[in-house]
Amino acid sequence: MQIALGTSSMIAEGQGDERVELSHARARDLSRQLGDDDGLFRALWGLSRFHQSRGEPVASYELGQQMLELAKSADDPARLIWSYLALGQARFWRGNPAKALSDLEATIETCRLNPDSSDVYMFGQDPALSSWALVGPVEWILGRVDRAVRHGGEAVELASKAEDPFTHAFVLNFAAVVHQLRGERERALELAEAAIEICTERGFPLFMGFGLVMKGWALSVDPNDENGVAQMQRGLTFFQETHTGLGGPYLLALLTEALRVIGREREALTAVDSAL
Question: Quick one: which of 65, 111, 54 has its CA closest to 88?
Answer without folding.
Answer: 65
